[in-house]
Amino acid sequence: MIHAATIAGDPRYQGDTVSQLSAPPQIEFRNVTKMYGGVAAVKELSLTVSRGEFLTILGPSGSGKTTALMLLAGFISPTQGDILVAGKSVASVPSYRRDQGIVFQSYALFPHLSVRRNLEFPLEMRGVKAAERAERVANLLARVYLGDFGDRMPSQLSGGQQQRVALARALIADPPVLLLDEPLGALDRNLREQMQSEIKSLHKEFGITTVCVTHDQEEALTLSDRIIVMRGGSIEQIDTPEGLYDRPRSLFVANFLGEANFLQSVIAPPNGARPSGMMPMIRPERIRIAVPDTPTLADAHQRQHANGIVAEVIYAGALRKYNVKVGDSTLVVREHVASDQQVFRPGEQVRLDWLRSDVRLVATETNGGAA
Ligand SMILES: Nc1ncnc2c1ncn2[C@@H]1O[C@H](COP(=O)(O)OP(=O)(O)OP(=O)(O)O)[C@@H](O)[C@H]1O
Ligand SMILES: [Mg+2]
Hints:
It is built from ten helices and 18 strands. By secondary structure, it is an alpha+beta fold. The radius of gyration is 24 Å and the shape is globular. Helix 4 (115-125) crosses helix 5 (130-143), helix 4 (115-125) packs parallel to helix 6 (159-171) and helix 5 (130-143) crosses helix 6. Residues 1-20 have low confidence and may be disordered. Adenosine-5'-triphosphate (ATP) is lined by residues 36, 41, 59, 61-67, 215.
């Protein structure tokens, strides 16, 4: 048992609320390293996941996301460090005895069992009575939009349908922890959005602690309480979706999550000097585009501006994107499409401006990502 006083003084727990301090975190990685040959797939990873939290691991291919999840699932063991669930080391607990629902790409459905039998199986193992099994299966199949598919065999389903059955099967026994590796990867856009909100409401309803791996930034932003950005086996940054998007620590995070404009050759540094290793960055939707002779606004002293020439206009439904040449740089501007809006054409002169307070300084390199 760890006492609250000890935890409160521990920098790893900063940001946790007081009510969470009384219980250990649901999941904790303590300095976990996984080596393959001479290469660390996961490097000195330390993190905690609170009870009921939805944590997403985001990062480029090969950054160690699946490895981190496989360690948690118990499919592989750490080379160094320890993993705790509900305050207890799970080092000696085999994966089938860890109380976790799992949706992995490589963790397929039972091919010889119907969809209904796939879902019933984990309940049978736990001695749940037939009537309750049938009710739970029907309920969950409906939640993943497969109410009429109970009698099909997995081979008679599309990839996306199989993924949805896998999600239902992971949830069927009401596990305290859910692990998802690219759970919506095979779905088309509309279904993916439907399933995102379904996962969100299932997560809320079941109060299930969830760790999800994805490539998809939008999915990470939509679903998560917190997001980890991984790079080269280490954590580059961990924060809320808003914190990560609005206050990226590094150039890597700024570029990985959303689009970023770097302003070092557009604006002069304050007092003529810029902190070394830092770069000014602004998000495309924070820049306003207007005709060159726009009247000065009352808040002009809070703004910075640059003159440029429109190089490209990209129409994307609800958004219009401009690439604007400013000196040697190209700035991206993103505007919500509105009916009373002026539309600029390639070759037109424009004036860009933005609030000084919307400019962030990001590190060009970080320790974690020296890969
Ligand atoms: N069994 C293994 N043997 C050797 N190297 C491995 C093994 N599994 C993973 N790796 C290496 O570890 C690193 C991290 O792999 P991992 O599968 O965790 O990446 P990932 O972030 O999930 O990537 P992706 O987005 O492509 O799924 C990669 O460089 C990979 O080649
Ligand atoms: Mg992976």
